[in-house]
Amino acid sequence: MAFKLEYLGHTLEAGADLSSLQYSAVSLDDGARSINGAEAGGILQNKPKSNEFADIAYVGIMKFRAGGTILKDSWLRVDSNSTMIVAGSGYHLVGKSLMAVSSGSIGTGKFNFVNPPYASESSFVA
Q: Are residues 70 and 47 in the same domain?
């Protein structure tokens, strides 16, 4: 299934070599990889090296790198490898998958890194 990628984003100087982290979560405070949803500022859209400009998407429909198997319509969180995995209670919800994705693959989802909610059991009630 194809999706039209539409998102809001901005640029930031990369604080580390991010050339191998395209579609991974990045932090706005230091321009490096993010290890959780609380510090994540968006998803990296390009492949910058240190001190180059990183294109960061923070809200909208965008690609992401999966850190585990994800089913369609799963809530997502950022893991310690800067990838997206299925969210559970006790984590910041940063998005929802629009497709099933296998671990290590690229998927598409709807994201909002502006103010990600902290998940409780009631967050997952449809």
A: no
Beta strands in the chain (DSSP E): 6-13, 25-27, 40-44, 53-65, 75-78, 84-86, 95-97, 106-112
Helix (H, G, I), strand (E, B) or coil at 42: strand
In the block, tokens 């321009």 appear at 31
Q: Please, are residues 79 and 91 in contact by the beta-carbon 8 Å criterion?
A: no
Same structural domain, 12 and 51: yes
The model's pLDDT over 33-74, given as tens digits with 9 standing for 90+, comes to 999 988 899 999 999 999 999 999 999 999 999 999 999 999
Q: Is residue 29 predicted with pLDDT exceeding 60?
A: yes
DSSP 72-90: TT-EEEE-TTS-EEE--TT
Q: Does 126 map to a domain?
A: no
Task: State the alpha helices, DSSP H only, in the chain.
Answer: none
Q: How many structural domains does the chain have?
A: 2
Answer whether residue 121 is part of any domain: no
The answer for 69, left when phi > 0, alpha when psi is -120 to 50, beta otherwise, is: beta
